[in-house]
Design brief:
Blueprint lengths: L8 E2 L5 H14 L11 H20 L1 H45 L9 E7 L6 H9 L8 E8 L3 H8 L8 E5 L7 H9 L6 E5 L4 E2 L3 H12 L3 E5 L2 E3 L5 H23 L11 E4 H6 L10 H11 L3 E4 L4 E3 L5 H22 L3 H8 L1 H33 L7 H20 L6 H8 L1 H4 L1 H16 L26 E2 L5
Parallel strand pairs: 1-12, 2-3, 2-5, 3-4, 7-10, 8-11
Antiparallel strand pairs: 5-9, 6-11, 7-9
Helix pairs in contact: 1-6, 2-3, 3-8, 3-13, 3-14, 10-11, 11-13, 11-17, 12-13, 13-17, 14-15
């Protein structure tokens, strides 16, 4: 019998060759699929041509041009709203059926659990080390089948020492990522992937608290899903009791991970993965060259790359508790990085739109535009819409046409209804959060302005989200002193 925790942590010497491969493998093997280059020459010429044509039309017929653009945006957002509503309702049915199936699957035994690699990229996370150790040791999985990689950037001594002071399952490796560019989470994950031993791989963040049955349920989902199932996403749950921003963030997650993603997955549509708690078949992950080290939302990019490779993404029920941003400044930094990564991902797909359509199918390509494309465009227009609607209260003559007002009202009502019906407690706080959604959405436009600026100035800069000190967990006595074990590679 192996101890639950308390084993030594191996510290292999940094491998510069592996670090280079972690940063450049995808860009070298599939340059068209990497965000290493923001815009191709063809995209720059195309954007310049469209801008010239639009400028000429505005100069010659401004009213007609504005009317045509407004009508196009109106029909696109009507389609996006209808699509999102249909996926939401379908996702609610899927979750109800899936919960029953998961309960039946959980009762089935397994002779031998496969080796499971946990990739945990950490940067300035000394405060989260203790809770991370407890969360990992709480997982219900055979300790001798865990392959844990703690990935820390060179120079982050505070995090190194905090991790060394904790108890970890035997065989855990503390991997120091050599210096290099880009200094991003996906580069660190690729570095860990090159040393992974497991048949399956999961990505966790420092503040995550995964459900103790999550690994076993993922294995069973892979066994039942067939060889084309490359990834299963566990739902992310936020603690929304830490202020209005945290509450809105948690409500977004409830809609996205408990309704939208299950609906998309059940229909085989492309999914922009969450940044953590996604589980992969290692062989298929390696087949697509892992994560794009140059994309700041590597999760969204990888989900779409799997779809373009003809692979499937599923969902499982056991959740992961994640710490939400509590301050507006922290939220803006995180959301700006997300939106910058969404732009990178969309631009990569649209380098060769016809090729992407052939790879994923016309229906999936359309679904991509109505999800990722709509998320980008809505972040651009929420703020201007709010200003325009506010201005009409002072100057009624400049208001939009009645049909646009009806649509804006219908979209607000539909989104509020989705928020109210999302999983979670339906108390007074839920109603306050749902009915103040129209105040939350314009913040997306502020984040989008920052995202575009960052994409132009520093496209590969990773804006780290500070998590602070997580809420206290029950103390666990360390079984044995932690020994530093150096591998023979040193």
């Amino acid at each position: 019998m192996l101890p639950l925790c308390g084993g030594g942590v191996r510290e292999p010497s940094p491998d510069v060759a592996k670090a280079h491969a972690a940063a450049h493998a995808l860009a070298a093997n599939r340059p068209a699929d990497s965000a290493m280059q923001t815009l191709t020459a063809a995209q720059m010429w195309g954007a310049g041509f469209l801008l010239s044509v639009l400028s000429a039309l505005v100069w010659r017929a401004p009213d007609a041009t504005f009317a045509a653009l407004s009508l196009m945006a109106f029909f696109f957002f009507v389609a996006a709203l209808a699509f999102r509503g249909a996926i939401y309702l379908h996702g609610a049915k899927v979750i109800a059926r899936k919960r029953q199936a998961d309960q039946e699957m959980a009762s089935e035994g397994s002779v031998l659990w496969p080796v499971y690699t946990l990739l945990i990229a950490l940067k300035d996370e000394a405060e989260s080390a203790a809770q991370l150790s407890r969360a990992i040791c709480n997982l219900d999985y055979p300790r001798n089948r865990l392959d844990i990689k703690l990935l820390v950037e060179m120079g982050d001594e505070a995090t190194w020492e905090a991790l060394r002071a904790q108890a970890w399952p035997p065989g855990t490796e503390l991997l120091i990522v050599p210096p290099g560019q880009p200094r991003t989470k996906p580069r660190a994950l690729n570095y860990g992937l090159l040393r992974a031993k497991g048949e399956f791989i999961v990505v966790y963040d420092a503040e995550d608290r995964p459900h103790r049955d999550q690994l076993k349920m993922a294995v069973q989902a892979f066994r039942a899903g067939g060889g084309e199932l490359a990834c299963v996403q566990a739902p992310l749950v936020g603690d929304g009791d830490r202020g209005w921003i945290a509450g809105q963030w948690a409500l977004e997650y409830a809609v996205q991970f408990r309704r939208i993603l299950p609906g998309l997955a059940s229909l085989g549509l492309p999914i922009a993965l969450g940044g953590t708690s996604n589980h992969f078949r290692r062989a298929l992950l390696e087949d697509v060259d892992g994560w794009d080290a140059w994309n700041v939302t590597e999760d969204a990019d990888l989900g779409l790359r799997l779809a373009r490779s003809g692979l499937q993404v599923g969902v499982i029920e056991p959740p992961t508790l994640e710490a939400p941003p509590e301050a507006l400044g922290v939220w803006l930094a995180q959301r700006s990085r997300w939106l910058k990564g969404f732009l990178q991902t969309w631009l990569v797909v649209m380098r060769r739109p016809l090729k992407a359509m052939r790879e994923m199918g016309a229906g999936n390509f359309l679904a991509l535009q109505l999800t990722l494309g709509a998320a980008i465009l809505s972040a651009m227009v929420h703020g201007p819409w709010a200003v325009w609607l506010g201005a009409t209260l002072v100057l009624p003559g400049i208001g939009p046409a009645p049909v646009f007002l009806w649509f804006i009202g219908a979209s607000y009502a539909a989104s509020i209804a989705m928020a109210l019906a999302a999983p979670g407690e339906r108390d007074l706080r839920r109603y306050v959060l749902a009915f103040t959604l129209p105040l939350y959405w314009p913040l997306q436009s502020i984040a989008m302005v920052r995202a575009v600026y960052s994409l132009v100035r520093r496209p590969h800069f990773w804006a780290k989200t500070p998590h602070g000190c997580p809420p206290p967990m029950a103390a666990r006595k360390q079984a044995t002193p932690v020994r530093r074990i150096h591998s023979s590679e040193t």
